[in-house]
Fold this sequence. Notes:
By secondary structure, this protein is of the alpha+beta class. 23% of the residues lie in helices and 24% in strands. The protein has six helices and 13 strands. A four-stranded mixed sheet has the order 1-12-13-4. Strands 10-9-11 form a three-stranded mixed sheet, with helices on one face. Strands 2-3 form a two-stranded antiparallel sheet. The longest helix is centred in the first third of the chain and has 28 residues, at 96-123. It is globular.
Amino acid sequence: LPELYSLVQIEWDNSTHDIPVVARSSGAFIDQPFPDGTGKFRRISEYDFELYAQDKAEGAPASIQRQQLGYTKDITLSRRGLNVEYTYEGKNYEKYSFNTDAVRECKNAMMRRLDIDLQHRFTFGNSTSYVDMSGATVDVTVGDGLALFSTVHTLLASASTYRNILANNPQLSRGALEAMEKMWIENILNQFGQKEARPADMLWTTDDPNTVNTARELLKSTAEISAPNAGVVNVYQGKYKHQIFPLIATDASGNVDSTKAKYWGLIATGKAGWQAYLGVNEEAHLMPLAMSNSVDVRTDNTSIPARIGYGIAIVSGRFCTQSKGDASA
Length: 329
């Protein structure tokens, strides 16, 4: 058994890069350390500060800087798992490729589950909750209690509201992108209702071919998109990173959902941008052999458990926008 476990561990380690976790590596989500012994929950808060200095009259005290605690949201850890199971015959009769493929695909399944959970924050971003593939109800509200994408997001120190859904939900085009940019500059507000001059740096889409190709034409053409000659500069070249999220257009079980194929939007990434957090307590790993009752004496099957543990929380809808691309009101 130790020899089998050693083989399984080697195959596990070698399969690290089989399945990239697109959403995690995109930069859209902020990794939040979540060490053992620090609890199941981690509260994430946003803070805003007065943007402009005030006049100071001669001999008079300076104004005190306004500070505002923004909305909060808790990361709640959940664990995912699968057991790699080998029959006695598979283990001992040299079915090597089957054994190694099982390990590889088990790790891939861990990585896929993390990826789809992250991308489903966009998929179900117009709802306040959804039931995931395991039957659990997932709260996908942001700190103000609304869905991630809303026309009436609230602020804590202002009566103003802001929207992050583009009116009429057009498909991606130059005109639609300019309309979203205009919405962006008019709706990126701090908690005091002041405009924040923080540009987006990511254009995100699904893997819909027409939408992807439109994004590439917009961002990578060397000429202005509709120009009759090639000497006109394309103002979008280098403006945004194009990020494809291939699992957005799926249902909760990972099946194709074509009604979401045209989703797209903008994000400002980094800690000064969209406050979307991934807290990881357990990277995908095999449980130590000593911790598992590995052999079933009834069947002679050997089970080696694989686990991953993480939580996701999005504090705010600021710095992330969406169009559903379906022309809905």
